[in-house]
Amino acid sequence: MNAIATTKILTDKEKDDLLKQVLGEDYTAAGRNLPLLKGLIDKIGKVDSLFTLTELLPLVNRILSVRVFSYMASGASIVSIFFMPIATMIDIINAYQAGRRMYAYRAIAYALTSWAFSKPILTNSRRLIIQAKTGMPRVDAKELIEYDKAWKKSSNDVVNKMNSIAITNDVPKEAIKIFLRTISDNNEQKLCEIIMKGFEKKFSFIELNVWKSNYKIGYPN
Fold it and tell me: pLDDT digits over 163-175, tens only?
């Protein structure tokens, strides 16, 4: 069953039967992933035709099962997603001062979004840099250099990490990209915001208000 050719909207039972067929003995173990997998069936065909449904669904189940991602879902919709294997890098970022830390987290979100959509990795957030130069308190030139270093390091590290995750877990990186595009309805800005929401617990109450206020600056600005 080619995903791109699947135009019929399947019933819940048909989705369940399909998952039993393609997952086999892994169906029962899929557990909490089943609602998400069912929700993705209707969306996958709108995103990519590189894999068939029977190829992609087991890969997505493996991505979720090996805890590459920790996600919060509402039904079949992703509320936020956090990338478990980048925890070490996150610990380094947490040592930054607040403004630089927020910039580094946004770098991760932008880099992962670009990676998922196979686009060039962005070198900065133009809007945030303008805001840092003109806002109050104003970020001085020396600190802006550190912002730039944090952005480049975070972007490079997370892309390298995602490529490594694909190899380590024997999952084609294109399958991970399709998964990310699918949960965001193939929308770059939506995926970026989903990723940024996954970092909300990393901020204090005051920092969180600032972090959320900048959601209005959407990818790739």
Answer: 998 998 888 999 9
